[in-house]
Amino acid sequence: MSDYTQFIDNVKKKTGIDLSLYKEAQMKRRLTSLYEKRKCRDFTEYFELIRSDRSMMDEFLDRMTINVSEFYRNGQRWEVLDKKIIPQLLKQSKTLKCWSAACSTGEEPYSMSMVLSNHMPLREVSILATDLDQGVIEKAKVGLYPDRSLKEVPADVKKKYFTQEGQFYQVKEEVKRSVTFKKHNLLEDSYGSGFDLIVCRNVMIYFTEEAKDQIYSNFAKALKPGGILFVGSTEQIFSPDRYGLESEDTFFYKKL
Ligand SMILES: C[S@@+](CC[C@H](N)C(=O)[O-])C[C@H]1O[C@@H](n2cnc3c(N)ncnc32)[C@H](O)[C@@H]1O
Q1: H or E element: which one contains 162?
Q2: Residue 99 Cβ contacting ligand 1 at under 6 Å
Q3: Residue 62: what pLDDT?
Q4: Which atom of ligand 1 has the smallest separation from the CA of 232?
């Protein structure tokens, strides 16, 4: 068994996270530069370090998850969500069950809430937001962001839903109240059901084909007929019909 394979086994036992379902070359490169920084010679030594030191474990989790996000990421897609997809969903159902999966530090679910508020009172908006990493969930709950995270936010939305605090922007309480954050591992945990809208963006790129296949199939089962899966702008699904999905617009898939 290679040093890395043993590491994968140990991490799975210790944290429940299965690194074998993430693309190997990419993950190995990231983790190798991290263990070298910590003066370890190989993955065996590195596992000893993260096992015995909580801050090193946190650093490892932080590196393996990649948390970059921003509000209204790929702005044009959010226009389609606002102008086409949400009105279509509201024709089917007055209330929408929405999930932001792999939500990172909260920019995505808060953007969903802001867009949905164009169509219904904000107090009626309810979004489930989940991520594997408890650290990013805690940051998301605080809701404080640097200017660069807001570069795609329309000016009127910025004015309405943020307060400026020095160099940072604070998401207003009324928006925060519409989002419920929970820890959830897309590779392990059960998915709910009856969702009208699932947004899962910029995480599938890290998974193996086998893992992606399982996740898309789980999302399709979790959606209502007519429900929509919104994916990242490099994550087009090859043959969506395999999962009982069809393309509704670029990067939007409808459950048949
Ligand atoms: C690059 S961020 C994407 C954030 C946001 N969706 C966006 O598009 O801006 C990827 C997120 O996926 C999360 N992630 C990685 N593996 C995961 C898993 N197995 N289950 C749930 N979330 C995971 C990471 O913790 C990270 O916050």
Answers
A1: strand 162-165
A2: no
A3: 86
A4: 8
